[in-house]
Amino acid sequence: MVEEMAISNKVDDEEVGQVKTVKGSKCFYLKKMIGDYIDTAVRIVATVYLADFLQRLFLCGVEYWRYVNYYLPEDRMRTILRRGFTYSNKSVYLLMAFVLVGFSRTSMTGDLRSVVPTAAFLVYMPLYWMFNDLGHSTLTYSKWIREPHGLDYAEGMASNYFHGYLKLALPDLKDDGLKHRIAVYEDKNNVTFGIDRLVILIPDEMWVKGVLESELLEKAKPLETRFINRAGVERPFKHDVYRLNRQVNGKNYYFAIEGATPMLSFYDAMQSNLSATWQMRELKREIWLKFAKHLKELIAKCPETRNEVHLIVYSSHDKHGNPVDVGDKLIDYMRNKTETINKRES
């Protein structure tokens, strides 16, 4: 009986030992698998960054020898290298993170070779050069246009329109600003302006006729012309005035209105075979929205213009496909303005 119990205990001990050994081997295998995965990931990232570095170096060489006229002779090399090896913050942070992971693995294993790319990894670098633009698409253009860099067509048009026209024509220099001319117009003609600012129309169709087509607006006498010397030329600045033929709160209001001329120029460019590209036509809505957004920001940032312009950004057609009358937009604005004033007074 005692012998049987001893044999039974011995067998139980052996089974427990086998279970511990199996569990230990599984844990060891899992740790090794995770470690191998991290080492491989570090090697892949190092290979990608090395391939990217070599490609940038090659492109810098092409730039240096082929596009000489785009750079000043004394600053050509430094400018090309600075442009060629500029990385986004995301790329820099990712590289730093993987460098830290690589050092951590090296300190744990004591073997630097475990995270250094071998020839088996390096031979795949040509695949990176072949497919590195795989993620590029029309959506990439859209994303680039939305970014605030000031280099796209939309921001360029908005900036030129602001600095070359609005910032010159609207602020007061010698009692000749827009608000002053509106006040003089009201006194002379015994009328009231609904908005004492320049109303600029920015429809998504980008087309505004020379004389506004509206059942609710009638063209009136324009504001007094202002002349400003610009680069040695006396440039006239004119603003048309329209009368709202439907009364709001018992009055027929007047407005200084015009379309955003850069948008009309862009519309014309899209209709021309000389200048139109498929990117312009495909991304015209992106350009329209970016133009309106950037123009609004420029106007708001400048103290001389922030109270001189009222932008109306709208769809040219309603959900049923009918043309939108800008007169309705002005009526809605006046009603909302009146309701706001009444709420404040009450």
TrEMBL record:
The keyword Iron does not apply. Residues 38-150 form the STING transmembrane domain. The keyword Electron transport does not apply. It holds the Pfam family STING_LBD. One of its GO terms (molecular function) is 2',3'-cyclic GMP-AMP binding. Residues 152-337 form the STING ligand-binding domain. It is found in: Membrane. It is a multi-pass membrane protein. It comes from the Eukaryota. GO terms for biological process: activation of innate immune response; autophagosome assembly; innate immune response; positive regulation of macroautophagy; positive regulation of type I interferon production; reticulophagy. GO terms for cellular component: autophagosome; endoplasmic reticulum membrane. Keywords: Membrane, Transmembrane, Transmembrane helix. PANTHER family: STIMULATOR OF INTERFERON GENES PROTEIN. This is Stimulator of interferon genes protein homolog. The lineage of its organism: Eukaryota, Metazoa, Ecdysozoa, Arthropoda, Hexapoda. The gene is Sting.
